[in-house]
Amino acid sequence: MIDKLIENEEYEKALDLLKNDTSEIAGLQKVICYFSLKKHEKVINLARVLLQNETSNYYYDILSLYIASLVEIEEDEAAIKLLEEELSMPYIPGEFENIFNDTYNRLIKKHKQANKNYSPYDLYNDDEIKSLLENNEKEEILLLCVNQLQKRNIRNFLLEIKSFLKNSEKPNFLKTIILESLNEQNIEEELDIINKDGMTISVIPTELTPLFERESLIEVNNIIEAKVENDISLLEYCFNISTSYFASIYPIDLSKDEYSYVAASVYYYALTLSNIEKPIEEVANLFDVKKEFLSVYYDTICNVNEY
Fold first, then answer.
1. What pTM, to 2 d.p., does this model score?
2. Which of 38, 182, 224, 291 could bridge across to 284 with cysteines, CB 3.0–4.6 Å?
3. Per-residue pLDDT for 119 more than 50?
4. What domains appear along the chain, each with residue ranges and CATH number?
5. What would the pLDDT profile of 136-150 be if each residue is shown by its tens digit?
């Protein structure tokens, strides 16, 4: 009976009959009625309650009307944020994924047109991201694209990502960000990476330990901290350099025998950049490593800046 009333556009009558009905289907029917009556605030308020049940059979039906109501009352930022959250989920039913992508791209385009002083590099739609990943060489633009992948359904970009990861000219630290985004969105497909040295590495993103959780990075920073604990600014400088280094070699890891050499090299490089003179022999003694090997690791740390 309710479906018939809705079909005949008798929304007020339908709402009156639904007043005391708390079933899942009744929740959806109320949202449909409010939306059809252009009572968008009621749609939003009711949908927020109903969407707390993420296992509802009508979750995406209600969500799509919730987003549509936000768009109707021009709450574009709230709609964009919600769409970014949903589009980053591992699974969305195909019909709704298409609707959400179309709505998101339309809102981004509208946002750009309405804000003429807004940087054209701040927000990209899906097609722009795909094109830029393939064709752009500017690191700052690629970084913006890669960061936005974290807010999208990354499966839509797998073709471009595979090409990006296998391009030895693309910055390794950007590949690290992409791998972590793939991990977060539960991508289990094996992918090939070609690094700056031309080495090919095959990985499954979900099996990778995130960069900042890696034992090697944590231990290297601990070694540095034990030696530089009295100089906070230099210590922070060292941490930044070590993070850049590990991001540049990810997903390759170090052996435990290398920890002290990398720590010493990071420290020595931080001293060099800070115009603090200290003989390499003194650094080798401080970290209890061999000078000749330290020189090799130091050169590697220096080369990170080229990446």
1. 0.59
2. 291
3. no
4. 2-114 (1.25.40.10), 128-190+202-208 (no CATH), 212-306 (1.10.472.10)
5. 777 777 888 888 888
